[in-house]
Amino acid sequence: MTTSRVFDVHIHVQPWRMLRADVLPMIDDPSHAGAREILSSPENLLRFLDEHDIERTCCINYVSPDVMGFTRETNDWIANFTRDHRDRLVAVGSVNPLHEPDARAEIHRILDLGIGMVKIHPPHQLFLSNAYRSNLPPLAEVYRACEERGVPVMIHTGTSIFPRARNVYADPMPADDVAIDFPKLTIILAHAGRPLYGETAMFLARRHRNVYLDLSGIPPKALLRYVPKLADLADKALWGTDWPSPGVASPKKNVEQFRALGLGEREERAILWENASRIFDRS
Hints:
Layout: E1 7-12, H1 24-27, H2 35-38, H3 42-51, E2 56-60, H4 73-82, E3 89-93, H5 103-113, E4 117-120, H6 122-125, H7 139-149, E5 153-156, H8 175-181, E6 187-190, H9 198-207, E7 211-214, H10 223-226, E8 237-238, H11 251-259, H12 265-282
């Protein structure tokens, strides 16, 4: 069997100095020995990716001062971090309308910086992904700008164990509105709704041409329990590990365990490389 190239769409490359004191120990634990050093420079990260046979990755960041500690400065930080390595490192940032007085200006500013994907994290940003339809109209400016400029939006789906996270926002279904209202926007549902909302996430991926599933944060050995029709959805699924989040020790081992599922060469190639490469090469 041919070994597929790997595009990991979900590695947290973040300014650790911003993390709140009660969040840091959940990430900076013995299972992630050396993570802080690895993420301290793009050169260190690229060496780590090479060691784990990962060709490209999305460097996940988002503005969440209330839950994680990340401020709008994280956008500038990741833009600078990835600046000389955009062929391998996709800068991911966000606009949090609850903390941004001019969401329209800020989304265009960060896209001009080279942000290649925008992250919406409802449980950590404390709003529903369709809140533009009710109490947060400026959120529509974020989606509209990304749709116009061909930049994908990743929406966190599923629960979070971090302190102060609000899991009332974890259900993927509000993304149904986003897919309808912004039909040319590429939407990636991070974590495929795990652990409680897998059926909803799969429904949305099947229903909408512009909706994809990110498989990160799910133990590979359990993937077929969470996404039982993964082979049928191979053209709508993207590989991701969520490293260095709790429970994710080795991206390389995760890929090996995924390949051991025996989905088939075409399906593996689509999930591990082709789908993400197609999305981000056109963005």
